[in-house]
Amino acid sequence: MKLKIIELEKSKIRLSLEGEGHTFMNALTEEILTDPEVDVAKYVIEFQFSDPELFVTMKKGSQKDPVTVIREACDRISGRCDDLLGCLKN
């Protein structure tokens, strides 16, 4: 997966995720929103075959940066997938 950072500030980020679709983006935004320091997490796919853009902003006074929040959300998703695969092997 290729990422292109379009905008990065202390409390917000906008990036493009090459080749991803609604399935991954829905899971990612929902997981990002579980963090209590996140204010907004949304994505847009402008055209049917265009790459999605993810937009994340943090609440005022948040100690976390949006890149860390995205990484943590991806780690949680990956962990759940590993757990599922482990259950299927048994």
From TrEMBL:
InterPro entries: RBP11-like, RBP11-like_dimer, Rpo11-like. GO terms for molecular function: DNA-directed RNA polymerase activity. Pfam families: RNA_pol_L_2. It catalyses: RNA(n) + a ribonucleoside 5'-triphosphate = RNA(n+1) + diphosphate. It is found in: Cytoplasm. Its main location: cytoplasm. Its EC number is 2.7.7.6. Residues 13-84 form the DNA-directed RNA polymerase RBP11-like dimerisation domain. Keywords: Cytoplasm, DNA-directed RNA polymerase, Nucleotidyltransferase, Transcription, Transferase. GO terms for cellular component: DNA-directed RNA polymerase complex. Belongs to the archaeal Rpo11/eukaryotic RPB11/RPC19 RNA polymerase subunit family. Part of the RNA polymerase complex. DNA-dependent RNA polymerase (RNAP) catalyzes the transcription of DNA into RNA using the four ribonucleoside triphosphates as substrates. NCBIfam families: PRK01146.2-3. This is DNA-directed RNA polymerase subunit Rpo11.
